[in-house]
Amino acid sequence: GGSFLQTNTAAIVRSLTINMDLSSADRDMMSSFLSEGQGQGFTPQSGQITGILKQMKDTMEADLADITKTEEESKATYEGLVAAKEKEIAANSKAIEEKTQRLGEIGVKIEELKEDLEDTSASYEEDKKFLSDLDSNCASKEAEYEVVKKTRAEETLALAETIKILNDDDALDLFGKTLPSPSLLQVSHRDKEVRHLAMKALRGSHDNRLDFISLALRGKKVNFDKVLTMIDEMVTLLGKEQVDDDDKKLYCEKEIDAAEDKKKELDLDISDLEKAIEETKAFIETTTEEIAALAAGINALDKSVVQATDQRKAENEEYKATMQGNTAAKELLGVAMNRLNKFYNPKLYAAPPKRELTEDAFVQYHRGAPPPAPETFGPYTKKSSETGGVIAMIDLLIRDLEKEMTEADVMEKDSQKDYETLMEESSDKRAADAKAITEKASMKASAEERLEVEGQGKAESTKELMGTAKYIQNLHAECDWLLQYFETRKEARASEIESLGDAKAVLKGADFSFMQRGASSSGFLARRA
């Protein structure tokens, strides 16, 4: 017993009793037992030592049970929290997808409604302008119609009164007695009167070209055949001019309509290109931000991998140091317990492996016979009951060390497995992010090319629109006067042809009554002009 108390094992046991949670009395008792070799005045009872060790065991088991229970509760709480968070993440992800899709659909719908609004506003402005022009034109046409209606009524009344006067019985009897037959009258007309009637038939026209015919009729030597030829040529010319005006009117209306339609198409194309350009710019900006975010994520992931690797190295070093220390302490406690068994329980003693002695050791071992032993104070009685508790306590400490080493080994394997999983997931994520960056960079390059094409298309469409607008302006400058006065010119030209026909009839020797009707018609045409 005294030799054990003088070994390093006893010192380690004394250190453990100091660090363990014991009462002052129990700690004093253990210290007295372990310091027996320094004095023989105190001999503790084995039952007390056993009780102390049992109390230590119960305390450690209770602490272990509390720790295990707390760990299981924390584990269950963590698993429940993880499950709840996963459900919440799934629900939020689904809501984000639905709202993102809804946002895109609403954005498309808004753009369609904006386009409809622009088209409706443009159509509304055109309708307002057309209504304003229609009101103005209707008012002027109504005024012109009232004038024509009034003139026609006056002319009809004059003709009716004249016919009534000429158709009176007395007038007819008078004409029968005084006027010769029309054929004789036609033959008896002098050339001067014919010239006068023909000039009177041409008087209602405002065309300067008819002045040449009037000038020819005023000549002293009149050649009616030449004048008739001039009248025929003039009628042909007027007919050709009317055909030219009809063709020009058809051309102007067709070209203006086509140019206006083309202008609307170009306006719509430019509007679509502007929207496409804005969308492409927004896509490029978003893609650039996404690429930057992915690159930042890769940098952060690389830093996290470095930190995780450093942490894993530190944990492994700590694990190795802990295992080395615990292994040394376990071996030391085993040596101490084996030494106690050698003395108190020889059957449980395990002899250490034999060492081959060197020559120096052999020489040192056989240096000489030792001197005779001094006198002692009598035979020593083994304290078997007390040492049994100490051996059990050492065995308990060894088992605690083994348990701690097992837990450390399990934790090391779990940590290594988690680290390898983290490295694999990080590698996969980094590869996926790098691939996404490459794809998005390609998409961005395609979008930039598309933006350039759209910009060129817009520039070309704008240039074409300017040319179309200039062409429309030239068409209006060329055609507006013709379209505005087409009916007036047509009526005036018809009136001129009618006047030429009357003059030609006079020159060919029409009867007197026809000449009078022609004169009356010329006056009406003159009033209309």
Explain what you see.
This protein is 86% helix and 0% strand. The chain has 13 helices and no strands. Helix 4 (46-166) runs parallel beside helix 11, helix 7 runs antiparallel to helix 8 (210-218) and helix 9 (224-344) runs antiparallel to helix 11 (384-484). The protein is rod-shaped, with a radius of gyration of 65 Å. The chain starts with a helix and ends with a helix. The model is unreliable at 37-44, 180-190, 359-368, 377-381 and 510-529 (pLDDT under 50).
Query: How many helical stretches?
Result: 13
| Secondary-structure element series | HHHHHHHHHHHHH
User: Biggest β-sheet: count, sense, barrel?
Assistant: none
Estimated share of beta-strand residues: under 5%
* Overall pLDDT metric: 76
Please outline the helices and strands.
Elements: H1 2-5, H2 8-19, H3 24-34, H4 46-166, H5 169-178, H6 182-188, H7 191-202, H8 210-218, H9 224-344, H10 359-365, H11 384-484, H12 486-507, H13 512-528
Q: Summarize this, please?
A:
The chain has helices spanning 2-5, 8-19, 24-34, 46-166, 169-178, 182-188, 191-202, 210-218, 224-344, 359-365, 384-484, 486-507, 512-528. The protein is mainly α and 529 residues long.
What attributes does this structure have?
13 helices
